[in-house]
Design goal:
The complex is a heterodimer. By secondary structure, chain A is an alpha+beta fold. Chain A has helices spanning about 5-20, 25-40, 40-60, 90-100, 145-150, 160-175, 195-205, 215-230; strands at about 1-5, 70-80, 125-130, 135-145, 155, 185-195, 245-255, 260-270, 275-280, 280-284. Chain A contains eight helices and ten strands. In chain A, helix 4 links the parallel strand 2 and strand 3 (about 125-130). In chain A, helix 1 (about 5-20) packs across helix 4 (about 90-100) and helix 6 packs parallel to helix 8 (about 215-230). Chain A is globular. The relative contact order of chain A is 0.21. Chain B has one domain: fumarase (Alpha-Beta Barrel), CATH 3.20.130.10. Chain B contains five helices and seven strands, in the order E-H-E-H-E-H-E-H-E-H-E-E. The chains are: A alpha+beta, B alpha/beta. The structure holds iron/sulfur cluster (SF4). Iron/sulfur cluster sits at the interface of chains A and B.
Chain lengths: ~280, ~170
């Protein structure tokens, strides 16, 4: 059996949050630079230039990329040889509290959707757990902004709606969202599963590396076609027109009921902040 | 080329702005987002005096990150404007002339902008680090209990924005 100290979890989460809110991954910066080179719309190009400049300033001067430092979303993979003698969720939230407070980040979480009283430390995070082989704890986290999350959408299609139904729903969602989710976007699409699972796999799709491709052929073909068609919508950077509406489309699928074709579209803005760290357990 | 605008922006300069113009603003702007708008509109309904005179002013929809000890303000990019659509006509009726946010607004709101010969500008979402460099001074002037959503008076130099709805009611979207 292996263990990971509570303090290590707290310190790791805190450091990951502070780092994630100030630095964009190089793979995303590369995509933005490629998009800047290709963009033909003058305003769209000007927007992309400022987005690229912003991430330089954020990194060099240690200022959050965006003022919306989000709700913190975590996907935690727990090696099944690990044992915990403490509450892991509590430890993660402790790290969140310290990260947002000591990191001078915005606290955007309210205790109840109707009383709107701020929790003042951005807790609680939204945490998903899964098990893996071995003695490692893999932490994936992303501060997810409100603007792009608000424009995300879910629909229970009929099996007869098929592939075209999925494509139309994704295109409609992105067109209706316009400039509000801060395009250029990364589009996470879930198909199949059931009502809650389809949203879960769409969110999980946003955690995939920006340059990978879906393993399942049907999903991969959808990714290619969707990316091409989304970039013909002329939404463009910040909705001002152009050929850069999405940087990538990620489709995740899951088995579903004979009567169902659930689809979820989770939008990620250009401020695609995320981090991954693996902690290795020590012998308990 | 960007147009240089100094606040208070006079009527003729404002009315001359056209959709798609890129501008650089220097001077005073006030911050307000969802909760502050609700408070302002509630105060007007009770005929209370507002924390600042709206006449000819600029309101920026932003909730910044906390400033570090050596900074005027933290990261401070725009939030989505559509959530302010139901409040803005009431503020424009009180003299508000310029709004800065991000994203589309309702058809009704576009009509109101035209009616008041106001303008709606967009700042680029997600570039809060860059925008923070244009803010030289920030002072909370109302609703400190709202934290990030408090109303701040900002002094800015060359704050970049784009005209999204002009005073004739043309919209970029
Ligand atoms: S959608 Fe993203 S980039 Fe835009 S304001 Fe929200 S977090 Fe920032």
């Amino acid at each position: 059996m292996y263990k990971i100290e509570r303090q290590l979890v707290i310190d790791t989460i805190k450091a990951m949050i502070i780092e994630a809110t100030k630095t964009l991954d190089k793979t995303i910066v590369d995509k933005l630079e490629y998009a800047f080179d290709k963009e033909v719309n003058i305003l769209g190009k000007s927007v992309l230039a400022k987005i690229i400049e912003n991430q330089k300033i954020a990194k060099e001067e240690n200022i959050p990329l965006c003022q919306d430092t989000g709700v913190l979303v975590c996907f935690i993979e727990i090696g099944r040889e690990l044992v915990f003698d403490y509450d892991l969720t509590e430890a993660i939230n402790r790290g969140v509290s310290l990260g947002y407070t000591d990191g001078y980040l915005r606290k955007s979480i309210v205790r109840h959707p109707l009383n709107r009283i701020n929790t003042l430390d951005n807790t609680p995070a939204v945490i998903h757990y899964d098990f893996i082989e071995g003695n490692e704890l893999v932490i994936h986290l992303a501060p997810k902004g409100g603007g792009s999350e608000n424009m995300s959408s879910l629909k229970m299609l009929s099996p007869a709606d098929g592939r075209d139904g999925i494509i139309n729903f994704v295109l409609e969602t992105i067109k209706n969202a316009g400039g509000k989710p801060c395009p250029p976007l990364i589009v996470g699409v879930g198909i199949g599963g059931n009502f809650e699972h389809v949203a879960y796999i769409a969110k999980k799709a946003l955690f995939r590396p920006i340059n990978d491709q879906a393993k399942v052929l049907e999903d991969r073909l959808l990714e290619e076609e969707l990316l091409e068609r989304i970039n013909k919508l002329n939404v463009g950077p910040m909705g001002l027109g152009g050929i850069t509406t999405a940087l990538a489309v990620k489709v995740n699928s899951a088995p579903c009921h004979i009567a169902a074709l659930p689809v979820a579209v989770n939008l990620q803005c250009h401020s695609a902040r995320k981090k991954e760290v693996t902690l290795v357990g020590t012998i308990a | 080329m960007e147009l240089l605008l100094k606040t208070p922006i006079n009527d003729s300069d404002r009315i001359a702005l056209k959709v798609g113009d890129e501008v650089l603003i220097t001077g005073t702007i006030y911050t307000a987002r969802d909760a502050a708008h609700q408070n302002l509109v509630d105060s007007l309904a009770k005929s209370e005096i507002l924390p600042f005179d709206l006449q000819g002013q600029i309101v920026y929809y932003v909730g910044p990150t906390p400033a570090k000890p050596n900074q005027a303000i933290g990261s401070c990019g725009p939030t989505s404007s559509y959530r302010m659509d139901k409040f803005s006509p009431i503020l424009m009726a009180e003299g508000l002339k310029v709004m800065i946010g991000k994203g589309e607004r309702s058809i009704e709101l576009i009509e109101e902008v035209k009616k008041h010969q106001a303008v709606y500008l967009i700042a680029i979402g997600g570039i809060g680090a860059l925008l923070s460099k244009t803010v030289k001074k920030a002072e909370v002037i109302a609703y400190p209990e709202l934290g990030s959503e408090a109303i701040r008076k900002l002094e800015v130099i060359n704050f970049p924005a784009i005209v999204a709805i002009d005073s004739r009611g043309n919209s970029i979207f």
